[in-house]
Automatic annotation (TrEMBL):
Zinc finger motifs (dksA C4-type), residue ranges: 84-108
Protein name: Zinc finger DksA/TraR C4-type domain-containing protein
Domain of life of the native organism: Bacteria
Entry-linked PANTHER family: RNA POLYMERASE-BINDING TRANSCRIPTION FACTOR DKSA (PTHR33823:SF2), RNA POLYMERASE-BINDING TRANSCRIPTION FACTOR DKSA-RELATED (PTHR33823)
A molecular-function term among this protein's GO annotations: zinc ion binding
Pfam family, one: zf-dskA_traR
Listed InterPro entries: DnaK_N, Znf_DskA_TraR
Keywords: Metal-binding, Zinc, Zinc-finger
Annotated stretches, region: Disordered: 26-47
Domain Zinc finger DksA/TraR C4-type, residue spans: 79-111
Amino acid sequence: MDDTACTPADLDRLHDAMTEERSRLLERVGDHHRSGPVSGDSADRAELGVETELDVLIETQDRELLRQVDFMLERLESGLYPVCVACGAPVGRARQEAFPRATSCVDCARRPRRS
C-alpha cells in the first residue's frame, strides 16, 4: 500500500493535466459531429456504416473519459482529492501517478464490485 501523500505541487500538476485532457476530449467529441454527408456507391456506404459504428464507440468512450475527468476536476477544486471516494483513505501518490483519474485507493480498487 502506498501512503505517500500528494503534495500541493502534485495536485497542481494533476489539475493542469486534467484540464488539458478535458480540452482534448471536448475537441475529439466535437469532431465526431463534424462529419460530411454520405455519398458514393453501396460499398462506400457499407464501409461508412462500419466507420460510423466505430465512431459511435469511440465517442461513447470519449464521453465516459470526459465524465471521469470532470469528476476528478470537481474533486480537486473542492479539496476532496486525494481522498478515496469509498473509504476516505488517501489515494496515494504512486496510484495517482499511475492512473491520474483514480478516485479510490489501491485497497478499494482491488475489492470486487457488488452487482
